[in-house]
Design brief:
heterodimer; A: 638 residues; mainly alpha; Cytochrome C Oxidase, Chain A; 3 domains; two-stranded antiparallel sheet; 2 strands; B: 213 residues; Four Helix Bundle (Hemerythrin (Met), subunit A); 7 helices; disordered N terminus
Chain lengths: 638, 213
């Protein structure tokens, strides 16, 4: 293939080759650096995020070893602070959000019948910023101390100048600058997703025919778009206070630390939905396929998702019930928080009604999806408990809260992600993950997860404080903590089973049929893995669950009748040798890499106050941006 | 970078095989939708800092800390530079109209005028900052110093980015690489520029016009 291209290049008019030439590689490492293919970018997002998931998981195991027994000495208090801060920061910014970006990247274009996202190079930029941001944050461990002020980084703890600081080391600076950087990447990805879903749908794919997954990713993208700026503002204020002696949170000069809490949670609560809505989106795709029924109440599910997105902006102060915001604000935010239970409950009942009366197949993706519903509901209920002010006053800063949000984010989001990986792995890799190992993975995770986090409810009621590196003996917390630690290691075994499954499957797993699950949405219409251009012919959409309707119809009594495979539902052969050459796909580019590279360089400049380094970073960014915007998205074929 | 077609005349180059703009579902082009989304995001960014400014207005008097806005701000001077900045929105509109007509000479005049107006505003800001610094108002003096410098400074940074953007467009037009078919690039830069102007209206009102001690 490449030799033919090389030969033909020889016969062409001499093309000036320079460092500024368009990259041409389509295979090998270099092709991954310069690719703009949304599917390759998604795989890079996914693997990087899973790597950070392991890192964050190892940090959690360290914390659990330290807490297994009273008066633990495994970690020093300082190290413990670094680990719980980085565990939270990693799982939210380097695992949860990028994994949503990975699935969104891979499946938004495929589900709406598009050939790529709206801005392929911006997409790649988003990935590089995520990777560099992650490396930047973790480089702090060797460059003067990791962040240790919690993932929420409350001022004035984080904002007091280094000279008189409560937090020694550069950790808080790395944290503030790193999060600003990751925010830039997230906003870029959010813009890309919204424009793609609104503008690039296949003919006939109206908004109300879009898969719920795409709908929810639009909601998530809007939340990201509006949640990141308040966080960025708060982080800039923290950084300025810390390094340039401003007074934003300096109470002696009249500054108000509550401003930080407000700004942070105006970001922080929508962020919760930024994390969980993709999980809901994945489950909404998996349940109908394995119940062989359409999603119950499609439009209600969509509007509930939008309602969650909107209400999510009016509840932030429930994170501040004990900060002295006053009874009126407490009552208002308590009520608005309870309101969110309504659309969430609607969704849960819709999922149950989808499964109800269906021909349920308990394959691994379905198991994880059902696990999501059960555990997410428990987390939702403890959330309603937290919304009641007197109850929250009791539970605030105890392990009850830790139990609550892990039921939502681990029992919910992580289970949904694992289900989604099992569901879509055949599409992405062309191979089936082992169901045998998948079931071990699931059951170990259910046992491990509940063993880890259920006891924390009781520990919370008994008053064990969060974020504290040890506890004295005689409190009676040892047994439950030990159970929790054992549970954490069972989760680790479960993840290990998953990794073995993935590696084994990639090496010598069985080949996946094009449509292994008898699925409903357009991504299954093309080959597994899909060709770079996704669809040889852009599909014309006539129905919600278009692919299903191309395969089945109903007879007069409402029974399913399989249609004979027609031209419309024929799947192009795997690796079609006559790849259509008339399809103009976006060309690979170096510039997203260069553009993103400028950001961590500027970041180090800010952290260490090296102004020349900021200048170099700014120049690289400007050069990259200029080159990126002047080169055409699709190179003319010579 | 491998641009082969170079326009030599002032009229539009006819580029062979130019990919036609894709039909979008909403009818708004991808680029334009993206800049609107970006602007909506930026609104919250400035919103956070403007809210911070309002929250801390007048607190210095309570804490008896240092210079106050009324003793520091030079309202007539900043009104003039603000007027210049607002006029730059007009020249931006004229620049866009010119390139849409295919009048590249006038486009360059107006886009350069817009950039120069922007630079005038920034020069005014640099002068203002220096003056205040001499009078003893800096970032750490009190809450007024903190909120004033950070809010107007971030706006100034946005204007500066806008100026660089406009000059880049000017340079590309001089190279003949900005034909009428690329007028959307000017429109998008214009949307950003107008946004930065509108933000200044809010900041100017908040900081200079609403009376305070």
């Amino acid at each position: 293939m490449t030799t033919v291209e090389d030969a033909s290049a020889l016969f062409q008019a001499p093309v000036k080759r320079s460092i500024l030439d368009r990259p041409r590689a389509t295979t090998g490492a270099w092709s991954w650096v310069t690719t703009v293919d949304h599917k390759k970018i998604a795989i890079m997002y996914g693997t990087t995020a899973m790597f950070f998931f392991l890192v964050g998981g190892i940090e959690a195991l360290m914390l659990r070893i330290q807490l297994a027994q009273p008066n633990g000495t495994f970690l020093s208090a300082a190290r413990y602070n670094e680990f719980f801060t980085m565990h939270g920061t990693t799982m939210i910014f380097l695992m949860g959000m990028p994994l949503a970006a990975a699935f969104g990247n891979y499946f938004i274009p495929l589900m709406i019948g598009a050939r790529d996202v709206a801005f392929p190079r911006l997409n790649m930029f988003g990935f590089w910023v995520f990777l560099f941001g992650g490396i930047f944050l973790y480089s702090s461990f060797v460059l003067g101390g990791a962040p240790d002020g919690g993932w929420f980084g409350y001022a004035p703890l984080t904002s007091t100048p280094l000279s008189q600081g409560f937090l020694p080391g550069r950790g808080a600076d790395f944290w503030a600058v790193g999060l600003i950087m990751l925010g830039i990447g997230s906003v870029a990805t959010a813009i890309n997703f919204i424009v793609t879903a609104l503008n690039m749908r296949a003919p006939g794919m109206t908004m109300m025919k879009m898969p719920v997954f795409v709908w929810m990713m639009i909601v998530v993208a809007f939340l990201t778009l509006f949640a990141m700026p308040p966080l960025t503002a708060a982080l800039i204020q923290v950084f300025m206070d810390r390094n340039f002696h401003t007074n934003f949170f300096n109470a002696a000069a009249g500054g108000d630390p509550l401003l930080y809490q407000n700004l942070f949670w105006i970001f922080g609560h929508p962020e919760v939905y930024i994390l969980i809505l993709p999980g809901m989106a994945m489950v909404s795709e998996i349940l109908p396929v394995f119940s062989r029924k359409p999603l119950f109440g499609y439009s209600v599910v969509v509007f509930s998702g939008i309602a969650i997105g909107l209400l999510g902006w009016g509840v932030w102060a429930h994170h501040m019930f004990v900060s002295g915001i006053g009874p009126v604000a407490q009552a208002a935010f308590s009520l608005s928080t309870m309101l969110i239970a309504i659309p969430t409950g609607v969704k849960i009942f819709n999922w149950l009604a989808t499964v109800w009366g269906g021909k349920v197949r308990l394959a691994t993706p379905m198991l994880f999806a059902l696990g999501f519903i059960a555990q997410f509901t428990i987390g939702g209920l403890s959330g309603v408990m937290n919304s009641i002010v007197p109850s929250d006053t009791q539970q605030n800063d105890t392990y009850f809260v830790v139990a609550h949000f892990h039921y939502v984010l681990f029992g919910g989001l992580v289970f949904a992600i694992f289900g989604a990986i099992y569901y879509w792995f055949p599409k992405i890799s062309g191979k089936m993950l082992s169901e045998y190992m998948g079931k071990w993975n699931f059951w170990l995770m259910v046992v491990g997860f509940n063993l880890t986090f259920f006891p924390m409810h009781f520990l919370g009621f008994e008053g064990e404080p969060r974020r504290t590196y040890t506890y004295p003996s005689g409190m009676g917390w040892g047994t439950l903590n030990l159970m929790s630690t054992i549970g954490a290691f069972i989760i680790a075994v479960s993840v290990l089973v998953f990794l073995v499954n993935v590696i084994f499957t990639i090496r010598r797993g069985e080949l996946a049929p094009e449509d292994p699950w008898d699925a409903r949405t357009l991504e299954w219409l093309t080959s597994s893995p899909p060709p770079p251009y996704n669809f040889a012919e852009v599909p014309i959409v006539e129905a919600r669950d278009e692919f299903w309707h191309r395969k089945y119809t109903e007879d007069d009594e409402g029974r399913l009748v399989k249609l004979a495979p027609s031209a419309a539902s024929t799947i192009p052969a795997r690796r079609d040798p006559n790849e259509p050459h008339h399809i103009h796909m976006p060309s690979p580019s170096y510039w997203p890499f260069v553009l993103a590279l400028g950001l961590p360089i500027m970041g180090y400049g800010f952290v260490f106050k090296l102004y020349w380094l900021i200048g170099i970073g700014a120049l690289i960014t400007f050069f990259g941006l200029n080159a990126l915007t002047t080169e055409p998205a699709t190179e003319e074929s010579h | 970078m491998a641009q082969t077609v170079v326009a030599t005349s002032e009229t539009d180059p006819v580029v062979p095989h130019t990919p036609q703009p894709l039909q979008t579902n909403t009818g708004v082009s991808n680029n334009k939708l993206a800049i609107w989304l970006f602007i909506s995001s930026e609104s919250l960014f400035f919103g956070a800092f403007i809210a911070t400014y309002f929250l801390y207005r007048g607190r210095d008097a309570q804490f008896l800390k240092g210079p106050t806005p009324s003793s520091t701000l030079n309202i007539p001077f900043t009104s003039v530079t603000s007027f210049v900045l607002l006029m730059s929105s007009l020249t931006m509109v004229l620049a866009l109209a010119a390139i849409r007509r295919g009048d590249h000479r006038r486009f360059r005049i107006w886009i350069l005028a817009t950039a120069i107006f922007g630079m005038t505003f920034i020069s005014g800001q640099v002068y203002e900052f220096t003056e205040f610094y001499r009078e003893g108002v800096h970032l750490g003096t009190n809450l007024f110093g903190t909120t004033f410098f950070v809010l107007t400074g971030l706006h100034g940074a946005h204007v500066t980015i806008g100026i660089v953007w406009l000059l880049t467009l000017y340079g590309r037009s001089m190279q003949g690489k900005l034909g009428t078919d690329k007028s959307e690039a000017v429109e998008i830069a214009g949307l950003y520029w107008h946004f930065v102007d509108v933000v200044w209206i809010f900041i100017f009102t908040a900081v200079y016009l609403i009376p305070q001690h």
